[in-house]
Amino acid sequence: MLRLVATAMLATLLGRLWFLQVVNGAAYVRAAADVRVRSVPLPPTRGQILDVTGRPLVTNTTRPVVTVDAMALAHQPDGGRAVLTRLGEALGRPYRQLAEKVRLCGPSVPQPCWQGSPYEPIPVARDVSVPVALQISERQQDFPGVRTEPRPIRVYPYGRAAAHTLGYVQGAKGRDGLEAAYDRDLAGRAGRTDVAVDNTGRVTRTIRQEPPVPGDTLVTSIDARVQAIAEQALGEALASGGGSSGAAVVLESATGRVVALAGRPAYDPSVWTDGVTAREYRALPLLSQAVQGEWAPGSTWKVTSAAAAAAAGYGLGATYDCPPGYTVGDRVFRNFAGADLGPMTMHGALVRSCDTIFYRLADRLWRRGSDALQRTARGFGFGRPTGVDLPGEAAGAVPDAASKRAQWRATRAEICRRSREGYPEMGDRARAAYLTELARENCRGGGVWRGGDAANFAIGQGGVLVTPLQLARAYAAVANGGTLYSPRVGLKVVRPGGTTVRTITPPVTGRLPASDATLRFLRQALGQVPRTGTAAGAFKGFPFGRIAVAGKTGTAESFGRRDTSWFASFAPDPGYTVVVVLSEGGRGAEGAAPAARAIWEGILGLRERR
Question: Locate the Penicillin-binding protein dimerisation domain: which residues (predicted)?
Fold first, then answer.
C-alpha cells in the first residue's frame, strides 16, 4: 500500500513537472522574459549658480509639487485622459496643457515633451496651494498615478536678467546656457531606485534604493549689479528707439571674463518650472542675442581695416582725402549723408568715421590681389566662435572670394529664376526693378569677388557678420595690448562644503595681427571718438576725468529694415569692454552710444537703477 501510494505520488510529481517544463515551458519562458528590472533615477539637489560676489543667480527652494506617473496613466482604460481631466479641474488648468507635459519624447514627438525616464514621476504643477495638495492626496481613488510631495525646484531671483546665459533645466538635466555647459558639475550624482516591472510596464516591487549626492555650486564672473545696469540700459534704448532686439556685453578686458550678458527679447526662465505647453514653447525667445545674434558691424569694423592698412604698408599718420564719394568700377560708394570731410589722417578717419578713405584702401588692395583685409579680420577672431563656455555660439562670417563663389553656386538656380520672373510680390516697383536687374547681372556673372565687395567689406558691410561677444572680445584685445581670450562665464566650481573643485581660467587663443604701435594708435584714435568724434553728442558732459572711455560708433544698413546701431567701447579703470547693439536702432551715435554711456555711468554709480 505504501509502495503504491509512493509510486502514485512520484508519478503525479513527474507528470506535473513534464506538464510545466515541456507542455507549457515556452509560455513560462516568455512570461519570465517579460519581467524586467528598471532603474528610476532619483535626481539630487542641483547646485546653485552664484555671481562673482556670491549673490545667487539660480538657487533652489522646496515647494509642493504635483507629479504624474506616466506608466500608471498608460494602464488606465482611456490612457489616463479622465485622470488628467480631473487633475486639470483641481489645478485650474486645461487637459491639453497637462497632456503635453506628460507625453514622452520620441522620434516623432515634437517639443515640448518629457525627456526623462518614463518611470520617473513627471512634475506638472509646482507651488500648488495646501488645500489643493490635500485634495489630491486624499482622493487617490480619483487620481491614480498622481502624487503631491515637497521637491526642490529652481528659482531665479533676478527674473529675466541673464536668462539666456543661465539657461534652464528640464527633466533634471541642463538644456541650455550655464545649466547645460556645467551640467555635470551642477547635477551632482543621481541616486536610483531599481524596480521590477511586468510585461505591461506596471511596477510590481522595489528592489533597492541608492540616495543621490547633491551637486556642486558654480561661481561665475557675472556681476549681478552690472548685469542689472546693462539690462536696464538695453531695455530703455530699445523702448525709446523702437528697436526689435539687441544685446549688451561687458567683459574684463585683461582677463576675458564675462561681467554681464544682456539680450532682448528675453523671458523668465521660471516658465520651465511647471513645464511648458507647445504654444508657450513656440513663443519663447530662446535665441541668445549676445552669443547667437549676428549683425553687420558697420564702422566698428574699421579697427580691423585700419590694422590691415598698417600691415599692408599704408602709413597711419599719412594724409588721405575724404571726398563725398569714391568710384569703384561703375558704382559710386558714398560717405554717410554724402559728407565731404576733406583731407585727414587715419586717426581722423576713425574719429570722424570717413568711409571713402576705407573704400579707396580696399579698392587698391583688391587691385593688388591682396587678402589683407580678410586675414586681419580673422586674426581679430572674426569668422569663428570665440569658444565661450555657453552652448550654441554663432560663428559670424568673414566673406571672401571662395565663400562668395560657393554661395553663388548654391543659389544660382533661384537667382536665374528671379532674373526671368522678377519680384512681382513686391509692392515697391522701383525696388523690384532694381533687384531684378541685380539678379540678371548675378545670373550671368555672379560668384566673382569684385572691388565693390572689397569696398563694402572694409566698412563692415557686404556679408560681414559678427556677434556682440565677438566684437567685444576684439575690442578687449585692442584695450589689453593684443591678447585674444576665449571668454568664460564660469569662475570656479565649489563643493557643498566650500572646497574649491577647480578654478576656470579663460584660455588665450591668439594675438591680434597688429604691432604695439598700431594698437597704441587705435587706442588713441578711439579715445577721441566719444570726446570730439561721432559719439561726442551722446557723451556730452560725460566725466572723462573719472573714466576715460574710448569707443567706436557703427551704423550698418539692413535690407528692408532700419539701420543696426552699434557702439563698442573700453576703459582702463575699471578695465571693462562694453559693446551694445540695437537691431533697427538707427545710427550708432543715436541709439547704441547713449545706451553704452548709461552702462558706464551705472558702473560708476552715477545712475540710479530702477
Answer: 42-207
How far is it, in rounded angstroms, from Cα 112 to Cα 127?
21
Closest CA to 468 of 263, 169, 241, 328: 263
Report yes or no: 321 and 352 within 8 Å, Cβ to Cβ.
no
Locate the DSSP E strands across 448-489. 483-485
* CB count in 10 Å sphere of residue 335: 20
Residue 52 contacts by C-beta under 8 Å, 6 or more apart in sequence? 219, 220, 221, 222, 223, 259, 491
* Residues listed for the chain: 610
Please choose, from the candidates 577, 598, 565, the residue with its C-alpha nearest in 3D space to the C-alpha of residue 246. 565
In the beta sheet, which residues pair with residue 210? 192
Cell 585727414 sits at which residue? 344
Span 390-404, pLDDT tens digits: 999 999 999 999 999
DSSP 145: T
**Computed over its alpha carbons, how large is the radius of gyration of the chain?**
32
Domain spans in the chain, listed from the N-terminal domain onward? 40-79+118-220, 301-380
Query: Cis omega (within 30 of 0) on the bond before 265?
Result: yes
Mean pLDDT: which of 6-10, 193-197, 327-331, 395-399 is highest? 395-399
Strands 217-220 and 49-50: parallel
Within 8 A by CB and 6+ apart from 82, the residues are: 76
**Which residue type occupies 440?**
R
User: What are the distances in angstroms from CA 377 to CA 57, 309, 458, 464?
Assistant: 36, 12, 10, 10
**Torsion over CA: 398, 401, 407, 412 (sign):** positive
CA–CA distance, 35 with 590 (Å, rounded to integer)? 70
**Run of H or E including 457:** helix 451-458
DSSP alpha helix (H) spans, 21-140:
25-33, 70-74, 81-91, 95-102, 130-138
pLDDT tens-digit series, residues 584-607: 999 999 999 999 999 999 999 987
Q: Where are the beta strands (DSSP E) in 215-277?
A: 217-220, 245-252, 258-264
Q: Is the pLDDT of residue 218 over 90?
A: yes
Edge to edge, the sheet with strand 258-264 lists 258-264, 245-252, 576-583, 561-570, 550-558
In this structure, the dihedral spanned by the alpha carbons of residues 325, 326, 329 and 330, taken in order and rounded to 10 degrees, is: 20
**CA pair distance 284, 73, nearest whole angstrom:** 29
Q: Which CATH superfamily does the domain covering 40-79+118-220 fall into? A: Penicillin-binding protein 2a (Domain 2) (3.90.1310.10)
Q: Is residue 326 predicted with pLDDT exceeding 50?
A: yes
> Shortest CA distance to 262 belongs to which of 584, 582, 597?
582
In the CATH scheme, what is the code of domain 301-380? 3.40.710.10
Averaged pLDDT, 289-308: 98
Query: Residue 119: which of 29, 207, 30 has the closest Cα?
Result: 207
Residue range 466-500, pLDDT digits in tens = 999 999 999 999 999 999 999 999 999 999 989 99
Q: What is the rounded CA–CA span in Å between residue 487 and residue 468?
A: 12
- Beta partners for 167? none
**Average pLDDT of every residue of the chain:** 90
DSSP assignment string, 492-542: EEE-TTS-EEEE--PPEEEE-SS-HHHHHHHHHHHHHHHHHSTTTTTTTT-
